[in-house]
Design brief:
By secondary structure, the chain is α/β, with parallel strands linked by helices. The chain has a domain at 71-240: Rossmann fold, CATH 3.40.50. The protein contains ten helices and eleven strands. It has helices at 71-79, 86-89, 106-113, 125-135, 145-151, 171-181, 198-203, 221-230, 243-260, 264-285, and strands at 18-25, 35-41, 47-49, 95-100, 116-122, 138-141, 156-162, 182-193, 217-218, 234-239, 290-296. The chain has a seven-stranded mixed beta sheet, with helices on both faces. A four-stranded antiparallel beta sheet has the order 1-2-3-9, with no helix packed on it. α1 (71-79) packs across α3 (106-113), α5 (145-151) runs parallel beside α6 (171-181) and α9 (243-260) runs antiparallel to α10. The protein is globular and about 50 Å long. 46% of the residues are buried. Bound molecules: zinc ion. Zinc ion binds next to loops.
């Protein structure tokens, strides 16, 4: 294999100079043999894939969760994810909630059952139909959530972006529009993979949550904070060691070991050992494989 010299492109977000970070492949779904390059901005620290394939649809084949046959089936799936709404419930117990990228709607279903008036913006038309017809929430079909949010003539008490931002073009615009759509005192919940995690540092191109080429953008914690601040939001909480984030860490080690060791018991033990060592460090320096962050629109904007 011949090596090529990569010219770092300007940052997609701020135009700043960048440096090459990692070269990887679609190890998770193996939809292509192509390599994908990620760069990191020196200025805003955004990590971005470049170039971004023109048509992403081929890379999404074969990995979706099936649409449930009924609301009862969705509720059974959603019961396992109930904890994911806890960051919202710590600050809001009712009101209008907007979810971007709900897919089959486990989070939205739990939010509705918890008493929220839920709206969803989703790219997949079949999911939109399921959410409208079976789940009973208002779902809008859109491949451009920032422009759809700009058109909505209403504000929300909570907006949720659950492992969605990393898939979207121009995520900085999505955060900006979300900030504009929040009612005073409204909260924004963001969960994304943490590129500044122990797992990425150690596993690099094999880190499961790089998930190239479906994951286009990664915000390290401080970069996400800076973006939220620039949109007029204040930080309420940010962790990388909550239940969801540590689940991602565990998955990262598990799949890494499965891909490398043939003996089932050996890879199970190595995956668990990697996770346990990594978790100790993550609890000390906040470096788990996911970020769960809550930001708030101040009651009065200064
Ligand atoms: Zn930048």
């Amino acid at each position: 294999m011949t090596s090529t010299v990569l010219t770092p492109p300007p940052c997609h977000g701020c135009g700043g100079a960048s440096a090459h970070l990692v070269t990887t492949k679609d190890f998770n779904r193996k939809t292509t043999e192509a390599s994908f390059q990620y760069f990191q901005c020196h200025r805003c620290r955004l990590v971005f894939m470049d170039p971004i394939p023109d048509d992403m649809r081929p890379f999404y084949k074969g990995g979706y969760q099936q649409i449930p046959a009924s609301l009862a089936e969705l509720r059974a799936i959603a019961a396992d994810d109930l904890y994911r709404i806890d960051p919202v419930l710590r600050y809001k117990s009712s009101g209008k909630l907007l979810e971007i990228g709900p897919w089959i709607g486990a989070f939205s279903c739990n939010a509705k059952d918890a008493g929220f008036d839920v709206t969803a913006i989703e790219i997949d038309q079949n999911c939109v139909n399921f959410l409208n017809d079976c789940v009973g929430i208002r779902a809008l079909q859109s491949s451009n959530p920032s422009s759809t949010m700009a058109e909505l003539q209403e504000s929300f008490d909570a907006i949720a972006l659950g492992h969605c931002l990393e898939h979207l073009p121009e995520p900085w615009l999505v955060i900006q529009r979300a900030a504009e759509r929040l009612a005073p005192g409204g909260i924004l919940l963001i969960t994304i993979p943490n590129i500044k995690s122990n797992e990425f540092a150690f596993l690099g191109a094999a880190w499961r949550h790089l998930d190239a080429p479906r994951h286009i953008y990664f915000y390290p914690p401080d970069s996400l904070r800076q973006l939220a601040r620039s949109c007029g939001l204040e930080e309420v909480e940010l962790t990388t060691t909550d239940r969801l984030s540590l689940l991602l860490s565990r998955e990262a080690w598990h799949y890494w070991a499965v891909a490398r060791f043939r003996l089932k018991y050996l890879r199970g033990a190595i995956g668990r050992l990697g996770f346990l060592i990594s978790r100790r460090k993550a609890l000390r320096d906040n470096s788990g494989s996911g970020i769960t962050a809550v930001f708030r629109r101040p009651v009065s904007r200064g």
